[in-house]
């Protein structure tokens, strides 16, 4: 049985994203680990009381976390229709990204599903550095679920390929995710007009990919546009796309997205799930 890890902070965004995790779990016959991390308390008391009161605070935080996670789990089971025996509750204590990364490794999870926003006034908990830390550190694919994402099984996964590494391996990985979901794949490469002498080399790679995957439900397209991001957005508006897939590796396209204001297009204002995976 496959395993999906879902970190939650009990916010409305997390409740919504949990429905996506539950939908995937039902399709894949997977169990879901519901993970909640509670923070290290910051003492504001005298030195004499510090150790004793901090221990009490930690214990109280743990009890509150267990109680809230139990309530969340009951609602998750009710809303998704998953069997109770296919859900696991884990409480973590400390820094959120570290706990997610460690749990994913220890539990050998197949996927992580994360909401892209946390509670009010805590947006950074789930965006930018923290989210990037998780997706760059774990070996499994990660689904990032914006707050307005429709809860529908993906029919088309679009992989934005940069052709900077082995795209045959990457396409196999996308197919391994898409096929159990019943989804087709589109591999799209966009290069900008000013990138001279790139067209013929890319087209040769496209031809190689088409030959390798001629019997699979996947298509390949190379587009020449004024800008990569604008080109992707236009293509997704005119062609059905249910999930945008991005590969993770050093100096990858995703790093550019997270490290610039481009993230606003693909994460903060998106209604489209983003799937990240390691090449």
Question: How would you describe this protein?
Answer:
The chain is α/β, with parallel strands linked by helices and 279 residues long. It contains nine helices and ten strands. A ten-stranded mixed beta sheet has the order 3-2-1-4-5-10-9-6-7-8, with helices on both faces. Helix 5 links the parallel strand 6 and strand 7 (184-192). Helix 3 (96-106) runs parallel beside helix 4. The longest helix is centred in the N-terminal third of the chain and has 34 residues, at 47-80. The radius of gyration is 21 Å and the shape is elongated. The relative contact order is 0.14.
Give a summary of the structure in a few sentences:
By secondary structure, the chain is an alpha/beta fold.
Topology:
Blueprint: E1 3-7, H1 12-28, E2 31-38, H2 47-80, E3 87-93, H3 96-106, E4 111-115, H4 128-137, E5 142-145, E6 156-160, H5 167-181, E7 184-192, H6 199-212, E8 218-225, H7 228-238, E9 243-248, H8 253-258, H9 263-268, E10 274-278
Parallel strand pairs: 1-2, 1-4, 2-3, 4-5, 6-7, 6-9, 7-8, 9-10
Antiparallel strand pairs: 5-10
Helix pairs in contact: 1-2, 3-4
Indicate the structural class: alpha/beta
Q: How can the largest sheet be summarized? A: 10 strands, mixed
Report how far apart the termini are: 24 Å
Topology, number of strands: 10
Q: Extract low-pLDDT stretches.
A: 118-128, 258-264
Helix count, DSSP H or I runs of 4 or more residues: 9
Radius of gyration: 21 Å
**What is the average per-residue confidence, as pLDDT, rounded to a whole number?**
81
What is the overall silhouette? elongated
Q: Summarize the amount of helix as a percent range.
A: 40-55%
Give, in order, the helices and strands.
EHEHEHEHEEHEHEHEHHE
Strand order of the largest sheet: 3-2-1-4-5-10-9-6-7-8
In terms of DSSP E residues, the strand content is 15-25%
């Amino acid at each position: 049985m496959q395993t999906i890890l879902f970190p939650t902070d009990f916010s409305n965004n997390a409740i919504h994203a949990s429905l996506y995790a539950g939908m995937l779990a039902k399709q894949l016959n997977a169990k879901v680990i519901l993970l909640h991390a509670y923070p290290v308390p910051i003492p504001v008391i005298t030195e004499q009381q510090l150790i004793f009161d901090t221990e009490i605070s930690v214990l109280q935080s743990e009890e509150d976390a267990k109680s809230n996670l139990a309530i969340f789990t009951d609602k998750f089971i009710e809303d998704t229709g998953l069997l109770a025996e296919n859900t696991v509750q884990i409480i973590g204590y400390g820094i959120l990204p570290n706990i997610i990364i460690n749990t994913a490794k220890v539990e050998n999870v197949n996927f992580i599903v994360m909401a892209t926003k946390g509670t009010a006034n805590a947006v950074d908990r789930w965006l930018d550095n923290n989210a990037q830390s998780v997706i760059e550190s774990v070996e499994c694919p990660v689904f990032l679920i914006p707050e307005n994402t429709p809860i529908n099984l993906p029919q088309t996964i679009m992989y934005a390929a940069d052709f900077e590494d082995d795209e045959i391996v990457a396409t196999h990985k996308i197919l391994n995710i898409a096929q159990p979901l019943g989804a087709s794949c589109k591999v799209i490469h966009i290069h900008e007009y000013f990138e001279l002498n790139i067209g013929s080399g890319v087209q040769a790679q496209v031809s190689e990919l088409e030959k390798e995957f001629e019997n699979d439900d996947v298509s390949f397209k190379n587009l020449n546009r004024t800008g990569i991001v604008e080109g992707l957005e236009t293509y997704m508006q005119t062609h059905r796309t249910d999930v945008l897939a991005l590969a993770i590796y050093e100096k990858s396209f995703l790093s550019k997205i997270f490290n610039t204001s481009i993230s606003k297009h693909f994460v903060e204002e998106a209604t489209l799930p983003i799937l990240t995976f390691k090449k």
